[in-house]
């Protein structure tokens, strides 16, 4: 039996049909295009069965599949080890071309390299595209070609290039007739091995962002966009968001540039996944007290801003950005627990978990990363509370027992601050 000659578009972190670079070029292939998503067991096997992010991916794919049905096509869903899935696809189809958008995380780079070799051995041509960032890899570098490790000059160069290179939209709407005609079976969440979570990804909103710089630090105002999970999974085009931010608010645009800054740091310095960017900080003697870490995780430190943030995270998968800085600083400086512990906990809980940003921001808080907060900056959680939640609206939302006699702080701020500074001084290699 003759195998069908086809092209594939491999969905990964780009879960949308519109303004999708790789899909745009795939649909111009001379062969009908099978849209594919692989639930990668190398990632899934470490997740809890009610992981809300898997549920969100499944829900998003279901919507894409419904849209594809209108074209007489459907989404092919596979679960397994990525190489084995591709090997089976190569046996089932005459795979002429494979299109996908790049992923810059170390695991993804390694995985894609192996798939590229497998496809090449089977005479299949693969095409990789830039989609999840405006500028990638080596597009924003210093004059000598080296990567930036300080944000402000990176941002200035980014903006300079942005002004010179107008963003285009990749309109796929007129190309849907080139999808492979099919009615593949769409698996339930349970068939993939997961169950629905009570935690949900919120829709993003762009309302109110004109005043972003005035409202973003006040968690009780709930004035953030909730955009980050959607950028993480590619349910929205980053190009559209950047164009919107450029017209609306410079501070909001700056946050999107921070995202790309951390991505290029991870790309050029993959050691930051587990190690300090600044190796001079490797000698710090962390306390790493497990009972202290447990109290931090549960939101039972006795510091309202810290505890409210951790409880919000545990119950919703979200945490306000200002509060993230406070809780991260508290773990690393007040408790002297190394940033890797907190990074791993956030990776487990955050709906918008992004490896580069998570590692980058944790090292920023710990003082061990590139362009980080200086080690002697130790946030006072009580002052942060007075500045950013003066009426206690945010903390009362997440700490219902607050007015009934809230517990004492687990550590004295002045003592913890002095201890942290002394420990850092002693541990930094001169």
Automatic annotation (TrEMBL):
SUPFAM superfamilies: Cryptochrome/photolyase FAD-binding domain, Cryptochrome/photolyase, N-terminal domain. Keywords: Chromophore, FAD, Flavoprotein. The keyword Flavoprotein applies. Pfam families: DNA_photolyase (PF00875), FAD_binding_7 (PF03441). Residues 5-134 form the Photolyase/cryptochrome alpha/beta domain. Its cofactor is FAD; (6R)-5,10-methylene-5,6,7,8-tetrahydrofolate. InterPro entries: Crypto/Photolyase_FAD-like_sf, Crypto/Photolyase_N_sf, Cryptochr/Photolyase_FAD-bd, Cryptochrome/DNA_photolyase_1, DNA_photolyase_1_CS_C, DNA_photolyase_N, Rossmann-like_a/b/a_fold. Belongs to the DNA photolyase family. This is Deoxyribodipyrimidine photolyase.
């Amino acid at each position: 039996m003759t195998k069908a000659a086809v092209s594939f578009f491999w969905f990964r972190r780009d879960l949308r049909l519109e303004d999708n670079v790789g899909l745009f070029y795939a649909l111009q292939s001379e062969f009908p295009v099978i849209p594919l998503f692989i639930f990668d067991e190398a990632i899934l096997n470490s997740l809890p069965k009610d992981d809300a992010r898997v549920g969100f991916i499944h829900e998003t794919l279901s919507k894409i599949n419904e849209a594809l049905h209108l074209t007489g096509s459907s989404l092919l869903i596979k679960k397994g080890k990525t190489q084995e899935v591709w090997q089976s696809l190569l046996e089932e189809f005459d795979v002429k071309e494979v299109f996908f958008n790049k992923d810059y995380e170390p695991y993804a780079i390694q995985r894609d390299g192996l798939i590229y070799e497998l496809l090449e051995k089977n005479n299949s041509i693969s095409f990789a595209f830039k989609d999840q960032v405006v500028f990638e890899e080596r597009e924003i570098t210093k004059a000598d070609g080296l990567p930036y490790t300080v944000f402000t000059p990176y941002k200035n160069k980014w903006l300079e290039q942005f002004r010179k290179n107008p963003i285009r939209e990749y309109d796929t709407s007129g190309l849907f007739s080139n999808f492979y005609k099919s009615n593949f079976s769409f698996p339930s969440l349970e068939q993939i091995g997961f169950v629905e979570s009570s935690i949900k990804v919120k829709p993003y909103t762009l309302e109110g962002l004109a005043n972003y710089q005035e409202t973003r630090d006040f968690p009780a105002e709930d004035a953030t966009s909730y955009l980050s999970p959607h950028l993480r999974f590619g349910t929205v085009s980053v190009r559209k968001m950047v164009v919107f931010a450029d017209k609306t608010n410079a501070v909001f645009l700056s946050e999107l540039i921070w995202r790309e800054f951390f991505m290029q740091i991870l790309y050029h310095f993959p050691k930051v996944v587990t190690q300090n960017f600044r190796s001079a900080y490797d000698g710090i003697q962390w306390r790493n007290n497990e009972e202290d870490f447990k109290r931090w995780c549960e939101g039972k430190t006795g510091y309202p801003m810290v505890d409210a943030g951790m409880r919000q995270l545990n119950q919703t998968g979200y945490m306000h950005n200002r509060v993230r800085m406070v809780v991260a600083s508290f773990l690393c400086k007040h408790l002297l627990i190394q940033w890797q512990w907190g990074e791993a906990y956030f990776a487990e809980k955050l709906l918008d978990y992004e490896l580069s940003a998570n590692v980058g921001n944790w090292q920023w808080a710990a003082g061990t990363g590139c362009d980080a907060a200086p080690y002697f900056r130790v946030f006072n959680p009580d002052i942060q509370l007075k500045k950013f939640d003066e009426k206690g609206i945010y903390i009362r939302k997440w700490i219902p027992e607050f007015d009934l006699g809230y517990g004492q702080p687990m550590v004295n701020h002045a003592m913890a601050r002095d201890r942290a500074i002394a420990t850092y001084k002693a541990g930094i290699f001169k």
